[in-house]
Design brief:
177 residues; single chain; 6 helices
């Protein structure tokens, strides 16, 4: 069994950066939910917010790395056009998917969705990190801002989870090799 450098980059993109972001989301959501002034001291709140800021910026950086490696490293290999007259499309994932009616939807819907909606995840994650950094411990007393953070957090998660699921299914149907 041999693993190509393209498969390694695909793994780093999806199972590395992508999975780390999705796991970090769970921890961040718990931190956000438990950020209630009645549940802790002022010193405890400052410590929690500092830990949350660091975690959120790391999470935002990780999801940006996911998008950057996907866009500039893995995606060009996926999108590569086969030379004229090529019959073996196994190393041209996009062309392989589009060559069969039962797999064409993975590209026309799944990959197009990843291209156009997947960018919501890093943008929303960066907004979350910026809001928590701006308000600091004060965010625990600002219900509206905490609710906005939760909404952006959930948007980031849903966009990343859908992009990850589409990526996994597309890779199963036509892997980048």
């Amino acid at each position: 069994m041999e693993i190509t450098s393209r498969e390694v980059w695909t793994f780093i993109h999806g199972m590395g950066f992508g999975a780390v972001f999705l796991l970090a989301f769970a921890g961040g959501l718990v931190e956000l939910y438990s950020m209630r002034p009645e549940w802790m001291t002022a010193e405890g709140m400052r410590t929690r917010v500092n830990r949350m800021k660091a975690g959120l910026w790391i999470m935002a950086g990780t999801v940006w790395l996911t998008v950057i490696t996907g866009t500039f490293i893995v995606y060009p290999w996926y999108r590569a056009a086969p030379p004229e007259g090529t019959t073996d499309l196994s190393i041209f994932p996009r062309s392989l998917l589009l060559s069969q009616p039962n797999t064409a939807g993975w590209h026309t819907f799944g990959m197009e969705w990843k291209e156009h909606v997947g960018w919501l995840a890093p943008i929303a994650a960066t907004v979350v990190a910026a809001i928590v950094s701006y308000y600091g411990p004060e965010i625990s007393r600002r219900m509206g801002e905490r609710r906005a953070v939760a909404i952006f957090f959930i948007i980031a998660f849903l966009a990343a989870a859908a992009a990850g699921a589409f990526g996994a299914f597309i890779t199963k149907a036509a892997a980048v090799r």
